[in-house]
Design brief:
Elements (H helix, E strand, L loop, with lengths): L1 H21 L6 E6 L4 E6 L10 E5 L10 E5 L3 E7 L4 H20 L24 H15 L7 H12 L6 H8 L1 H13 L1
Antiparallel strand pairs: 1-2, 1-5, 2-3, 3-4
Helix pairs in contact: 3-6
Length: about 200
Amino acid sequence: MKNITLTLGLLAILAAGAAAQDDPAPGERVEITFASGATLKGTVVKPTTPPREPGLTLDLTWEYPGLNGTLTVPTQDIRGLRKLEALDAEALRKVTELKRKMAQDQASTPATTKPPAPTAVKPAPKPEEPKAKGDEELQKALEIYAKFPEPDWSPERRNAIRLKQYRGQVPTPQEREFLAGYDLWEKGRAEAKKK
C-alpha cells in the first residue's frame, strides 16, 4: 500500500514538472488554436498589468504586419498550443520592410474627408382620413382576403382548424389569425367575387 501511494505521489510531481516545462516562456514564438479551430501566432510576453484571469499574452507585431500590440488570450479559450521556431533574420527584415511600406502608404494617403451630413428626412405623408366606417371595414376585409387567398384558405379550412382545436391541438399563428378574422375574410371574398 505504501509503495502505491509513494508511486502515485512521485508520478504527480513528475507530471507537474513536465507540465511546467510545456508552458511557453516569454520570448518564445507560439501558435494558439482556439476551440473554433482558428489559430493565432505571436511571441509570448509578460503582461504589463496582471490579467483578471489566467491567460497567455502574445505580441502580434512580428506576425501580422499592420497590427501592433499585444493580445491576452484566456487559458480557458485555448484548445491547443504549439511552439514555433524563432523568426530568422531574413523573415524579420521582410516584416520590417513591409511595415515601413505600410506606414509610408498611410502617411501619403490624404486624410479622409468628413462624409456629407445626411439630408433631412422628409416626414411621412399623413394618412388620409377614413371616408366612412364601411369603407375602412371593407378595406380591412379585402386585405385579409388577400393575405389568406383561396383555395388554400376556405370555409373547409376553417372547419379543419376548429376540429384541430377540438382535438386539443394548437393551431399555427396563421391559422389563429385566419380564424379570428374569418367574418372579415368572408366579406372580402364576397367583395372580390363581385369585382
